[in-house]
Amino acid sequence: MEYTYYLFYNSGSGGNRGQQFLELDQKELSFNIKESICRVKFYNICNSTSREAGLQQIMKQQVDDIYVVMAGGDGSIMWIVELLLMHEVNIHKCILIPFPFGTGNDFANTLGWGTSVPHDVIGIDNQVLKGYVEQWNSGVESYFDVWDVEIKLQDIGFISEIKRNENGVGEVKLQLQDQRYYKQMINYFSIGVDARIGFGFDKNRTPYQCCNKFVYCWEGFKKMFLKTPKVNQSIENIHHINDDDNLENGLIQKFKDQIVVPGNPVNLLCLNINSYAGGLKNIWINASQSQVKVYSNIPSFSDGLLEILSFNSILGLGSERLIPGQATRLSQSGGPLKLNFKQNEHLRTYFQIDGQYYSITNPSSVLIRSCQSLPQGKIRVLINKQGLLK
């Protein structure tokens, strides 16, 4: 039996640790594992020549299952999916395996592959890498939900993100068409103070993964003393949209002729997975119930549902890791889910998609629905059952 693993690595992820694969670029290693020959082929997703060489090899594959390993962070996962779709590869023939080289790695953590890898993956006789190949060889396949997030801005609105170049670090406005921003989501979407903390973190992150955790904590401490619009100061209402474009019961609540999110939360969080902010787990399971309706206690990344929660304070958000149960359950939704913003003269808030942070000025609405460019809105992934979150 022979297996081929196409390993694409993001040389800039997780403090540039992916650069250790450069010496193996467009080369192949073979391992004998349980009477099987396992080949690993290496391609730099950041280099167009190397990337294209790997994609061309995948396009020639005639087997039913094509194993694609993505060594990078959470953002790299949809990068390789988009490239496969662009090259008209049958996406449901591809089984994606995350190799956690990023900063948070919540996607990999959810599938049982952990939040980090050893620094010497390419070490003596490649024994560390061989250990991972053995795990890949015994992994279990599953489907995984993917969501579309479309953000619409007012005419005077804009979105900024943090960019790094040879001149330093700074905010850069995104170039938009028709005042709309579109991105796919696999992990989570949020609006509010947690995204503002992440935005500040992006400004000050270091090349070192361990140091970045301290930077993130420092940013969270600073934001306790700055005013960030709370959910009910920025969002007018939230709609579960059905086929008749009516509102469903559940998340939204009418009070004094206004539709508001219950309480006065500092953020709104839509979870597709059971891991958040670099390994914070079981938020939904531990959260308190805000409605009479009883929701599922066992969220799944393949059930076609998002878990929607909120935190009432930065302190509660920061202490969730040590004292679980700080969040409030709001709803579960299969989408489409629409958030309409207050049409203030000047509203600036923050949002994140899968750990990428943005500042948004004068938003109009956010629409979240099952990914339209994927069959059934899903991808195939490989699970490490021994490492699954409990």
Automatic annotation (TrEMBL):
Keyword match Phosphoprotein: no
Keywords tagged on the record: ATP-binding, Kinase, Nucleotide-binding, Transferase
Biological processes annotated in GO: phospholipase C-activating G protein-coupled receptor signaling pathway
PROSITE patterns: DAGK
GO molecular function: ATP binding; ATP-dependent diacylglycerol kinase activity
Keyword presence, ATP-binding: yes
InterPro entries in alphabetical order: DGK (IPR037607), Diacylglycerol_kin_accessory (IPR000756), Diacylglycerol_kinase_cat_dom (IPR001206)
Pfam family, one: DAGK_acc
Domain DAGKc: start-end pairs: 51-153
One cellular-component annotation, GO: membrane
Protein known as: DAGKc domain-containing protein
